[in-house]
Amino acid sequence: MDKDGSGSRSHFEAMHFVEDVGLLLERQGIPRMAGRIIGWLLICDPPHQSASQLAQVLGASKASISTMTRLLIEMSLVEQVGVPGQRRDHFHIKPGAWDEVMRETLDEIVLGRQLADRGLELLERKPAELKQRLREAREVYAFFEEEYPALLERWEKTRKKTLR
Amino acid sequence: MDKDGSGSRSHFEAMHFVEDVGLLLERQGIPRMAGRIIGWLLICDPPHQSASQLAQVLGASKASISTMTRLLIEMSLVEQVGVPGQRRDHFHIKPGAWDEVMRETLDEIVLGRQLADRGLELLERKPAELKQRLREAREVYAFFEEEYPALLERWEKTRKKTLR
DNA sequence: TAATTAGTTTAGTCAAGACTGAACATATTA
DNA sequence: TAATATGTTCAGTCTTGACTAAACTAATTA
């Protein structure tokens, strides 16, 4: 039995999965290759992989892997792990990575609300109907800014029940 | 009094606002110029503008405005409006545009959950500990997929109180 | 119908940045 | 220390897509 998370039969499906994760994350502004690394680290066996393994499986240069793993570590999505009896560092999906992703959404929301407020200041002396557009945007952001933390907290609770 | 939403005194701030909206939306994968159009349409007076007005204010080509307004209409963020006594169509922020943005978030979440499920199928015959990473991702998405619609609904209610 | 104005389409330019190869560093093993 | 294996940095290539100029279409006015 192979150690790469797929019999050669399902190797095609595995690579297809990797590619689709790359596509999905690209839409969130993450470079394609970084997304592929995430995709592979989600399904590989063992769950940690060295830089050269990643380069080989994904058909990418060492340089690209080096740059993208650094980016992913910076984003707190990937972690380096030492593997006993192995020379160099390996990478794996950082536990709790997805919580981090969801938490970052909150930052975007806050930025949006703040920007809307700035816009409203520009319209200070204008009639209410002109402010309507921006008030709408502001209120959406403000609502989510208020609700989102509670949602995250509820997730933390649910999480402990669902996983492990 | 000028009709562009800013005295020349505050013209600089207005353009700065426009630029920042462009930057914020660019991070969501919307082209810079499209973001600028949104930014300007949020603060201009009157709230509807013709293609040539947009081109002039934003210092962009007619072609770019034409392409980007089409994109924004496609995304349901902007609408065409007829203005009595004016030759051609004008554009304005579509009322409820931000609701639409929030609703699209749900699509992303669903896609994420589905993709995680596909990954889990690939690991079907593997031990539970190997599935842990993906289960975590899946459960986060699943949680939001379940909670998000209720959140949107609560927003719809709050909205009617807050606005108008 | 000619002249003017408004907007779209097309073909092409340009810039950003993802990615690579090769030189360089660092550590491990012999 | 030499030889090998692993990873990083740098300089340059290549692709993508945002943007423009100019030709084209359509509508309005004279």
The proportion of strand residues of chain A reads: 5-15%
Report the end-to-end length of chain A measured between terminal Cα atoms: 27 Å
Query: Greatest contact pair?
Result: A-B, 56 and 55 residues
Indicate how many domains the architecture of chain A comprises. Answer: 2
Q: CATH superfamily of the largest domain in chain A, please?
A: Winged helix-like DNA-binding domain superfamily/Winged helix DNA-binding domain
Oligomerization category of the chains in this entry: homodimer
Number of helices of chain A: 6
How does this structure look, described?
Two copies of one chain form a homodimer. By secondary structure, chain A is mainly alpha-helical. The first copy, chain A, has two domains: 8-93, Orthogonal Bundle (Arc Repressor Mutant, subunit A), CATH 1.10.10.10; 97-162, Orthogonal Bundle (Helix Hairpins). The first copy, chain A, is 69% helix and 6% strand. Chain A contains six helices and three strands. Chain A has helices spanning 8-26, 32-43, 51-58, 62-74, 97-122, 128-162, and strands spanning 49-50, 78-81, 90-93. The first copy, chain A, has a three-stranded antiparallel sheet with strand order 1-3-2. In chain A, a hairpin with an 8-residue loop joins strand 2 (78-81) and strand 3 (90-93). In chain A, helix 1 packs across helix 2 and helix 5 runs antiparallel to helix 6 (128-162). Chain A is elongated. At the A-B interface, helix 1, helix 2, helix 5 and helix 6 of A face helix 1, helix 2, helix 5 and helix 6 of B. The first copy, chain A, binds a DNA duplex (30 and 30 nucleotides) through residues 31-33, 50-52, 60-68, 70, 87-89.
